[in-house]
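Binding-protein-dependent transport systems inner membrane component
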Amino acid sequence: MTALRRFLPGGGWLSAYAFLYVVFLYLPVIFLPIFSINTAATPKFPLSGYTLKWYEDLPRTPALLDAAWNSLVVGVSASILATVFGILAARSITRYRYPGRRAINGLIMAPLVLPEVIVAISMLLVMLQLGLSLSLFTVVLGHVLVCIPYSMTVLTSGFEGFDRSLEEASADLGESAFGTFRRVTLPMVAPAIISSLLVCFTISLDEFIIAFFLTGTDATLPIYIWGQLRFASKLPGVLALGTLLLVASFLLMTVAEILRRRAARRTQNEGGLYA
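Tokens:
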């Protein structure tokens, strides 16, 4: 009986496996901020000293500031567009029944399972066939394609938990369909919308492959980091920048998850079906 208990879910071996998995996944990430404060340019133990000069040098790098601005423009644009399309798609999937609904949902989610290199090359060919020059605009289009599935995942839970009787009551009071959507539906799913914006912005900020194939002369932060890795003397600055991106991504995803759970609790308390 004791031997059997060890192999049941919740046993000690499962906890040990989960611990080892987390260590394997995040231990390399922990080294990033540690080496970013090392005085030596070579990331190795023992550390030769502690310094913040690599962080202090970041604002004095014009190319880095330009790349950060480009990433901000691309991230904001892609997150807004992906969230707008995600709202429309999630609304359609959760509210209506029509032929091919499941197939359409699967096609929208396809970028999650397709190799990103294949998606990037395909988009590059499409852009060239349309006569578009590679620029931040093409990067935004590529990021929108990648971000829409994440946006739909977040927004679908918000729309599924929404009580349709509220919309029916609004319609009975004489409000139009668009007015009901704007005054009733959107405020109720606002936490999910904000969560979608944050998730999409984080994904766009960290995305490299799509940007690598679709960017022109204006580099985003991941492209800038990749270019700096060719020079050993630039490595400490890259580690410092990577640490800042890591912290920013962690904070954004944490806030997005908090808002997603708040949206789920809110719709549940309002009598929704989602739990």
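DSSP finds 13 helices and no strands in the chain.
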